[in-house]
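Worked example 3 (structure in, sequence out).
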């Protein structure tokens, strides 16, 4: 009796879900058993996490937060309902790469004929003391929700202590000048002004600082869009600090290598990512810059039955030699290639190469203003914001039945309009 090969996908992010659904839809009956493993019960859509962290409605706060939560996270049970994907909610402890066996923290094991790493990444602190204990990040929904609650608590404490006779500003620092940092800093600027208005505090006491160690904030955007984005940030009152490398983080302050010292009420660290701990313990080849070292088919070098996608992979475009960046759209593209190569491998067909096609970028810069690059087109402002909402709808269509996706999207857009 021929045993049906098992494909095990570790991680239910953008790449992992794309791989699982593609295999479920395109495989022949009983061609393989697809199992997706994730420690959470929900699939998180990272591009809207900042909305959860800054949800604001003075009359229906919990209702707004609930709808935004439903938009940012979709239960795996709903995504895989009616599909041929088996979902396991487990935490991975270690991998035996030679046998492709997954060991879970509860003592269970799961062998695989083909293993896929789509675990994402972890926060990189670059050895900066105090980041792990004094700064927030928003890679998960609980982190985004806790950041919002912390920010409100800090503001109320600030208001009570000063009794509206502020001797200093209420300061929030965002470290990392990429798209995620820009989106969060812009939303903080809007959120804090509305919070100040609600509690009868002068909005001008609220300050948002955006730190970037490199020369350029929003370096992933084309120059023209970048300038529009920077102008928008300045209009919102965000203080831009390129070439400022944070070297220490305390409970209520941060220091920069250039000598700058800032007393802060909240610090959010979005300065970079690093390789997941599970990969570091796997015995698989990890590149010095992070991620599993993969060939042009996204198979891990030296391990033809193990693939990687998303933040887990270090891969170069075979045509240009350019290293593929860790961005959401690249993860989705890689997921499609990995899924096709798994079926090709099972069928004895030659594998295809991953080509880093021009990818769109979407960055919301406070309220209904977004920067969108859909090569060769560029959009900014309200038009860009509208295009981004349509991109979110397209993604929901890819993971949910069309009617469910459209209803969820419509509800989320109404709430975002009110939230902005």
């Amino acid at each position: 009796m021929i045993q049906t090969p098992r494909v095990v996908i570790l991680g239910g992010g953008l790449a992992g879900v794309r791989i699982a659904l593609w295999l479920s839809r395109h495989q022949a009956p009983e061609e393989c058993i697809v199992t997706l493993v994730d420690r959470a019960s929900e699939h998180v859509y990272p591009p809207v996490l900042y909305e959860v962290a800054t949800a604001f409605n003075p009359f229906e706060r919990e209702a707004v937060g609930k709808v935004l939560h439903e938009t940012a996270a979709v239960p795996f049970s709903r995504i895989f309902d009616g599909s041929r994907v088996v979902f396991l909610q487990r935490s991975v402890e270690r991998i035996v790469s030679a046998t492709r066996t997954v060991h879970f923290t509860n003592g269970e094991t799961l062998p695989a004929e083909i293993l896929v790493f789509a675990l994402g990444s972890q926060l990189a602190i670059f050895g900066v003391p105090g980041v792990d204990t004094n700064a927030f990040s928003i890679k998960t929904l609980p982190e985004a929700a806790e950041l919002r609650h912390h920010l409100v608590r800090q503001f109320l404490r600030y208001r009570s202590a000063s009794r509206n006779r502020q001797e200093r500003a209420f300061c929030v620092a965002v470290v990392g000048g990429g798209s995620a940092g820009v989106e969060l800093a812009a939303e903080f600027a809007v959120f804090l002004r509305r919070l100040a208005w609600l509690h009868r505090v002068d909005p001008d006491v609220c300050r948002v600082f955006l730190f970037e160690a490199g020369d350029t904030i929003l370096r992933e955007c084309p120059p023209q869009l970048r300038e529009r984005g920077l102008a928008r940030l300045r209009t919102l009152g965000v203080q831009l600090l390129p070439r400022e490398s944070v070297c220490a983080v305390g409970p209520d302050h941060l220091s920069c290598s250039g000598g700058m010292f800032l007393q802060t009420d909240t610090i959010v660290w979005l300065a970079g990512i690093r390789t997941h701990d599970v990969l570091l313990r796997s015995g698989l080849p990890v590149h010095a810059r992070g991620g599993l070292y993969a060939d042009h088919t996204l198979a891990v070098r030296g391990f033809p039955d193990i693939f990687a996608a998303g933040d887990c992979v270090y891969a170069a475009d075979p045509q240009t030699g350019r290293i593929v960046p860790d961005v959401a759209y690249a993860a989705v593209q890689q997921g499609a290639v990995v899924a096709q190569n798994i079926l090709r491998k099972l069928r004895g067909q030659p594998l295809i190469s991953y080509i880093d096609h021009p990818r769109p970028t979407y960055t919301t810069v406070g309220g209904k203003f977004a920067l969108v690059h859909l090569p060769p087109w560029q959009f900014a402002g309200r038009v860009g914001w509208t295009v981004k909402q349509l991109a979110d709808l397209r993604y929901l269509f890819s993971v949910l039945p069309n009617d469910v996706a459209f209803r969820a999207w419509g509800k989320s857009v109404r709430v975002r309009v009110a939230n902005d």
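Notes: Residues 141-162 form the longest helix (22 residues). The first strand starts at residue 6 and ends at 10.
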